Amino acid sequence: MSALLADYDYELPDELIASRPTAARDGSRMMVVDRAAGTVTHRMFREFADMLVPGDLVVMNNSKVIKARLYSTERGVEIFLLERVAERTWKCFTKPGRKTRVGSVLEIAGTVARVVEVLPEGERIVAFDEEPNLERYGSVPVPPYFKREADEEDAERYQTVYAEEEGSVAAPTAGLHFTEEIMGRIPHAFLTLHVGAGTFLPVKTEKIEDHVMHEERYHISAQTAERIEVASRVVAIGTTVVRVLESQPVGALKACAGSTQIFIHPPYEFQRVGALLTNFHLPCSTLLMLVSALAGRELIRHAYAEAVRERYRFFSYGDCMFIV
Q1: Burial classification of residue 211, based on how many CB atoms lie within 10 Å of its CB (0-12 exposed, 13-18 middle, 19 or more buried)
Q2: Which mean pLDDT values do the consecutive 10-residue runs of the chain (324 residues) have?
Q3: From the CB of residue 53, how many other CB atoms can be counted at a distance below 10 Å?
Q4: CB under 8 Å to 131, separation ≥6 — which residues?
Q5: Spelled out in words, what is the top-level CATH class assigned to the domain 5-65+142-323?
Q6: CA 46, CA 58: separation in Å to the nearest integer?
Q7: Helices and strands in the chain: count of H runs, count of E runs
Q8: CATH number for the 69-137 domain, one of 3.30.230.10, 2.30.22.10, 1.10.3810.10, 2.40.10.240?
């Protein structure tokens, strides 16, 4: 069993990190990992619909990314909204910390922000006089490994075409490959999980079982639950969908809302998800551990080495992997 953080490390040349999307959403390459055969083959994402079989249901996360990054030019402060905790009050990352101590007041995003609490992990609770106008003042919270600021292209492309429920601070990136045309060709249903700040946090414990997962809010509708119950195979689009479905109790799936801290890593036994479309994940990340639990660590290790050799594009704007 792969129980140590070092078991999930790999070498990745910087030039394979995709900081821009492909010209067309469905223009990515797709590595197909066949668990039963132990094989890796190379396809294009445009072929995804053709690989489904009768009885499949594609389950997608329709969370919408908010323009969570705010800047105060007056004092050189950045506020990164993480989660609304009350009316006009948010849990946030802020920097620099010395300018956002308890009692700090600053003008930002067309209103006034007041730091009312510093949490044990360093996040701030910030109360705004008025709700910040994110569409006017906010920017898309693109990942730090892009090594650039967000721009107009990100406002469109760092969002799935089916995004509807506002609340994420990072995109459920496996869904970025889909177009309206492909959506029309596949049987699909939606659930919602709002991707939180924990997606940016590295694993720091040598033994992976000692890592404490972040909590993320989700919702499953009655219609989606009913369709999943009668599906022959659930094809999850992204690890967020996996985390929601595998968090549910044994038995008939029901409509529900809640939060999950599930940490999926080998030797986890999957109960509800039969196949997964996902992007390539960062070394030593909980997401790499999740896909290793589904496909097996050695097969995933082989697949990632092959992806590097074949010059696949990695991470949020990169190519994808279909584990069947």
Answers
A1: middle
A2: 88 97 97 98 98 98 97 85 93 92 93 95 94 94 93 96 96 97 98 84 88 92 98 98 97 96 95 98 95 98 98 98 98
A3: 10
A4: 88, 111
A5: alpha beta
A6: 15
A7: 7, 17
A8: 2.40.10.240
